[in-house]
Amino acid sequence: MAAIGENLKINSERLWDSLMEMAKIGPGVAGGNNRQTLTDEDSEGRQLFLDWCKVAGCTMGLDQMGNMFARREGTDPEALPVYVGSHLDTQPTGGKYDGVLGVLGGLEILRTMNDLDIKTKHPIVVVNWTNEEGTRFAPAMLSSGVFAGVHTQDWAYDRVDAEGKAFGDELQRIGWRGDEDVGARKMHAFFELHIEQGPILEAENKQIGIVTHGRVCPGPKWRLQAKMPIQDQLRCPCAKTQGSPWHGFWIELRQLRCPTHLMRSGRRVISMFTRIHAT
Ligand SMILES: [Zn+2]
Questions:
Q1: Which H or E element spans position 273?
Q2: What is the whole-number distance in angstroms between the Cα of residue 141 and the centre of ligand 1?
Q3: What's the 129 CA to ligand 1 centre distance in angstroms?
Q4: How far apart, in whole angstroms, are the C-alpha atoms of residue 169 and residue 188?
């Protein structure tokens, strides 16, 4: 065991192997992952995480939003747990590390403590939040949002994906709807290790940073509708335009102000996502 004041070291090879093992489930484009929430692949990823947690001696809690809580006991029965975690779901074109590192990094902490026979006063709980990405069921951070009281559970269950499937039904279908009340847990602290999704660390040649602020980016949404003569619609690929003198379409614009840029320079940096729908 490390001496007092000496930094503990995790087993980075083991963490790497676990990341690679998890990445085999739901392979995506360019070596990344497509393990969207409440899919069969998500279920498989959860099972693997559960198996690893059991081997590490944890008990697993599962709440009614499918949030997973792997607990390693502490020595003080009165002490509230310290939580660490993130999410195992990915974007359709997601990477191997994003939230996965936050979950498996937490598990590696527990494994290291087991190796070194370290006991903690507070229990430690590693969390996998359901649907942090929000691609399949908008909005993002849905289940942590219910946990925090931002959304109601009924509202979350009614979110539908592009095929009209409801969140609640899909959670039930993949078998990861637990009994535990959502948000009932008390926390001593919560930590999340996460890949940075902005340019700052790379630009400053740093490997790690501490987040001091958080901001949700819902963004305003406009729907603009217009009709114009067909001869003005150059390069329109829609077959419906043929033979019709008028063609309606609408454009959806979504503007996000990037919080990292805001914090950094005080300037407003706008990223714009545009979708054009032909009608
Ligand atoms: Zn993430």
A1: strand 270-278
A2: 9
A3: 10
A4: 33
Crossing angle for the helix pair 40-55 and 98-115, nearest 10 degrees?
10
* 183-201 tens-digit pLDDT: 999 999 999 998 876 788 8
Q: Residue 205 in 3-state DSSP?
A: coil
Q: What is the pLDDT of residues 221-260, one digit of tens each?
A: 555 555 544 444 434 444 444 444 333 443 333 333 333 3
Q: Which residues neighbour ligand 1 (ion) by CB within 5 Å?
A: 98-99
User: Higher confidence at residue 25 or residue 247?
Assistant: 25
pLDDT digit string, tens, across residues 38-95: 999 999 999 999 999 999 999 999 999 999 999 999 999 999 999 999 999 999 999 9
Q: How far is the CA of 195 from the centre of ligand 1 (A)?
A: 7
In angstroms, what is the span from residue 240 Cα to ligand 1's centroid?
39
Cα of 139 from ligand 1 centre, angstroms: 13
User: How many CB atoms neighbour CB 11 within 10 A?
Assistant: 13
Q: Classify residue 192 as exposed, middle or buried by CB count within 10 Å of its CB (0-12, 13-18, 19+).
A: buried
